[in-house]
Design brief:
Blueprint lengths: L2 H22 L4 H11 L11 H10 L7 H25 L1 H13 L13 H20 L5 H17 L4 H15 L7 H13 L1 H8 L4 H11 L6 H15 L1 H13 L4 H21 L10 H17 L4 H26 L18 H11 L5 E4 L2 H10 L5 E3 L6 H6 L8 E7 L12 E14 L2 E14 L10 H5 L2
Parallel strand pairs: 1-2, 1-3
Antiparallel strand pairs: 3-5, 4-5
Helix pairs in contact: 1-5, 2-3, 2-18, 3-4, 4-5, 4-6, 5-15, 6-7, 6-8, 6-15, 7-9, 8-14, 12-13, 12-14, 13-15, 13-16, 14-15, 17-18
GO molecular function, one term: pentosyltransferase activity
GO cellular component, one term: plasma membrane
Pfam family, one: PMT_2
Length: 485
Amino acid sequence: MSLRIITLSFLGLYSLLALLHAWSLPFSADEAHYALYGSFLDWSYFDHPPMVGWLQSIALLFSSSEFSLRVIPIILSGLSLCVLFHLAKKDFGEKTAQLTILLFISAPILQVLPFGMIPETPLILAGLLNIWILKRIQINEGHQLKDWLLLGLILGAAGLSKYTGVTLAVSTFIVLYLQFKARLFSQVGLYLAGIIAAICIFPVLYWNMHNDWISFLYQLNHSAGKSEYSLAAALRMQVTQFAAFGPLIYIVGLLAIWKLRANNGAKIWLIFALPILILFSILSAKGRSLPHWTELGVIFMLPLIAKVILSSLGSKIQKRIFISLASFSLLLTLVVQVLLTYPKIAFDDYRHPLADLMGWKEVSSRITSLAKEGDNVFIPNWSHASRVAWYARPMPVKVLDSRFDQFDLWFGSAEVGDSGILLLHADHKGFKEKLLKQFSHCEFKDELEIKIESSYVNYFKLYRCDHYMGTGNKEAVTKEAVNSQ
């Protein structure tokens, strides 16, 4: 069986499963949060630029179902795969391009991310188009003004998608300088691209000007992390990456960086991949890391990984090693797919891998049935608040932590005298019932147990609470807060 038929077969199966999961799974915390962006349409938002909100606002014109709000990210992910295949084929040949696609659809974490709207979804497409337009500029020696204009639009779209899109601007400058050397600064197109990119990101600047620059201060504070570097935290991030993307991509990726560091065809891919991978490796040492933050950098590495695998198949030892790594990766991917397709597998209480997805729609329905006119919903933290704010909308949701965030902008902070429904959510640590003491009076109203077979997955308690007394003022992200880190 040819590699092309294998690729098309697995791609078809992957697409069908993605559509199935997009139809059947409830929202994650991030998906609900960015769906709320679309509901509260704005120039920008507290923790991210506005692209995800703008895109979701388009979907909301037609429907507010989970599947409808996943259509645009599915389309964007499909376009990203097409651009990735085109670029890999042009640089390294059709077999490498086919294996690149197989690597993409074999990664455990990429069984989930492509059908959810998160900032990486439009950023990945912008990043791949960034490489495409740079290659056009290189081929045309910078003489085509439209190429520079497109470059500005693509960089602007990246800046509207996620703040780490700045790494694409840095990589772009490096690639252009290596191409043109000192002549770069005499290229009118360079300045036009910069002006267009700046115009594109003006909504972010405009919103921040009217909100005390809180997004930038938050990102500085968020990136600063803990005051000291932790080797253990950095190692945990690498282990997480190993599991999230699979051992084949992780190990051969490291090998590809070494083997292709002097390869001219690989240079542009490494220039775009390494800043992202290095940045988040450093941030992980300060306690700031999530598995999907490196997604764009890993995708930039996929054609290089495919090239190394294909060029090493003549060695029996290397071939066996690659087969072993691929088998382990596929096993992890199979486990993910089984859990997504058939989540009714019993685990220990509160240990189900999909526990975080379950029960939020049902408990939100309970809340709306208990609520009176003018009630608030009180929730301990933002990730829980996202699902309830989405499924119980338009009820105001107030988060009872000390951090100032997007919910404080949307619904206001909890104030002394506020009343409403308090939601407590149990995990393996139990309920945070000390929050009841923040009100003058609380009365138990309802509970909801979410089980799979005989195991608890989620457990919620609802209280009607009167007269919030507070625990002190929320701390907005300020220069002083940043400097205190």
